[in-house]
């Protein structure tokens, strides 16, 4: 058992830290999903152009 478990002020600090950290990870994850989609779209577009050039 941690010394901080019975300290209400420290508990609150830890909860706030966890909440903020969770929010940062959530925002980071959203950002990465958006970036991956953007890269995938760009890659698909380039592949499409290569295929088009090969056909002509």
Automatic annotation (TrEMBL):
InterPro entries: VSA_Rifin. Pfam families: RIFIN. It comes from the Eukaryota. This is Rifin. It comes from Plasmodium falciparum IGH-CR14.
């Amino acid at each position: 058992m941690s010394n901080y478990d019975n300290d209400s002020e420290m508990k609150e600090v830890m909860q706030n830290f966890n909440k903020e950290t969770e929010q940062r990870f959530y925002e980071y994850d959203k950002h990465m999903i958006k970036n991956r989609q953007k890269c995938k779209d760009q890659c698909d577009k380039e592949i499409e152009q290569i295929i088009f050039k090969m056909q002509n």
